[in-house]
Amino acid sequence: MPLLETPFAQLDLIRQPEQQNEPLQAFDAADEYLLNYLASEQPASSTRVLVLNDSFGALAISLLGKVEVSSSGDSFLGFIGLEKNLLRNGQAFDAIRPIPASEPLVGPFDRVLIRVPKTL
């Protein structure tokens, strides 16, 4: 599987559910664009970033340890993917606590990264 390489991290990510010979990646050009854009702003480590609808943790895990990151979404597979990809990349499974979409978000946030669905 290809690695996600950004200014913040180099990650080995998998999709959920896992399948042998999976032709699809757990990240895409939108993830890379958002991370490169944020890196160009040179955020301080105290910057509070909210990630919404992060498919398999590509955004949140990349930012872990670089900024204060919170992640929220409504996908159960995304939640499982986040946990598995944290472990796969040497992080504790609870390094990022996903906030269910049904819970209120506690801000303020300095930046919000939103993965807009392909269909609305």
From TrEMBL:
Pfam families: RLMG_N. Keywords: Methyltransferase, Transferase. Gene3D superfamilies: Vaccinia Virus protein VP39. The keyword Lipid metabolism does not apply. Residues 1-120 form the RlmG N-terminal domain. Signal peptide: none annotated. GO terms for biological process: methylation. The keyword Magnesium does not apply. This is 50S rRNA methyltransferase. InterPro entries: RlmG_N (IPR058679), SAM-dependent_MTases_sf (IPR029063). One of its GO terms (molecular function) is methyltransferase activity.
